[in-house]
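task queued by scheduler; priority normal; single chain, no ligands, no partner chains; default sampling; output format set to structure tokens
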Amino acid sequence: MNGRAAVLALLACSVAGCGILGGGPRVVGSMREVMRDGATQGRVDLADATGGPHTVAIGALEGLQGEFLCIGGDVWIGRAAEPPATTVSHGAGAADRATLLIADDVEQWMMVPLERDRDLAGLEAQLAQAQAKLGLPETFAFVIDGTYSDLHAHVLAGKCPYQDPHVAVGTTTGARGRGLFVGFFTSGPAGILTHHGQRSHVHVKLTEPAPFVGHVDAVVFDAGSTLRLPRR
């Protein structure tokens, strides 16, 4: 992150409420206050918070009007102005603000091929093992690039479907395909960056059969896909 962006991001955190998890990831907002309590105001300028060349981030736009992911400072945003249809834009605009953001700077990655198919629960078990074996912090970023099956994902459109199952959201499903998945794993308490009962928070970017960026509800990652973990 350049000097100006770093200063602006720190100032934004000081007024909006920003935490540091284990000396690593930066968290603006929390799942509990944003999704459950409805405090969805913009807390930080998205461009400033994701401006570093090594920044990895996921989160939600103010008002829950979309979701985003960032890898290497490259931001992709999914919106659902007319759900269930969605749109995708590249780059953070001057007006884009995040109500929830989890971000870290990862300069080097280690590549770990998935040796078997993994659903989200299986992936979380593998990430917990890697955390213990490699001495990774309580919360860390990960990336998966590869093929999948049984994908279910959504894009927020003003309300959280975990709180109101009947709310309209942008959606996508896929029996099979290829995607880029960006997420964070935590062994800390739920309600900060994960929903209750979960240890990971994952977003996906698809280019086929149609562009899509959103939150992953369920998926099976195929064996042979590449899992990237931060190199310590």
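post-processing summary
- The first helix runs from residue 3 to 16.
- The chain has two domains: 3-105, 109-230.
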